[in-house]
Task: structure prediction
Amino acid sequence: MVKSRPMFHPLSLFVGLRYVRARTHKFFVSFITWASVVGVCVGVAALIVILSVMNGLENELRDRLLSVTAHARVIAPEGAGPPPSAAQWQAAEQKIRGAKGVVGVAPYVQLQALAVRTPEMLPVLIQGVDPAQESSVSDLGQSMIQGRLSDLVPGEDRVIVGTIVAERLGLSVGDTVTVLIPTVTDNSAPTPKLREFTVAGTFEVGQTDNDGSLIFADIEDAQALTPGSDNGHGLRVRFNDALNAPALAARLRELLPKRFQVIDWTQDNASYFRAIRIEKTMMALILMLIVAVAAFNIVAMLVMVVTDKRTDIAILRTLGASPRKIMGVFMTQGLVIGWLGVALGVALGLAIAFNVGTIEPFLERTFGFHVFDADVYVSAVVPSDVRWANIAMISFAALMLTGLSTLYPAIRAARTEPAEALRYE
Result:
């Protein structure tokens, strides 16, 4: 007796995979099938690459911002009571130094001023720092193009200016610039105070707000501009993890008296990162439309397959297959096609995202253009940061879209009546 080969179970998976592998005489159905795979693949790959590049740009912006700013600032806002005494500031500094996660603390002074160099005037923000301690709270020294942070010697009235400030005022190293500080006399009469500084160097962060308004001076020279006033005085704090700054700043608020206010770098630059989040969200939604169009192609392809396989459906029903198993057949076919596109898209997207640094120069040499023009952008290299959470989110969303696209054709197939399908066969 010849032994029959056991039937593959479950039936829905077996028949669905056979339909995927089978060559169809319907060219249009085959074309839409491949178009669906390519559409899902391109959409998923584009999402991965775009989000990875935007993550890289976000990281670069964060690094540039943190190169001239500390991870947190401790200030005593005006109008919240009498200004803290020098002893209170020292006590606060000691508490901060002993706090968990803090790796550096340094005093600073911040003043609004007007930089004047005839015939130009420019509103600026003077930040007085201690060169000996500044390296413990920021990477300011690494942002210099010309000059060094140690050139800020107390009593010599030297400053380091942003490149945009230097360009607008026509300044270079060794030039002098007049700084006007608005002050008020005892009679509440406004009295501007003028002081001349020498440019000891320039810095560039690649961010207009900093390069176009910041001027660094020695903390003693900055305090001399407003003698007897503690306005603008504060402490700059550096943590061991910049990304954990909000949580660490919250701990400092619990340690310090209510008179002091702690502001972390994410609060100072909230508008920038909010804009990036909105851009990433909108870009993801727009690119996900590519996957949605491909999912509609899967719907159209499966509807045509259901129409073409009405006889097969009727035979399966007469042999005892339930409507649920018929649904499973066409859902299997659609899911295999959709998930194949997702898998190819993830592979292609990761290959491009991990090799952007190699692909970009090749494209620039081949087509003779620059993705990031060095005359416009500070960085001419396209950054990329692949985050696996993003990959998982993109894959899940694409799988859900392709899965949902199989429901209508599968339900339509399950509702096929065997007698009607076989009547004219």
Q: What stands out?
A: Residues 11-62+273-422 form one domain.
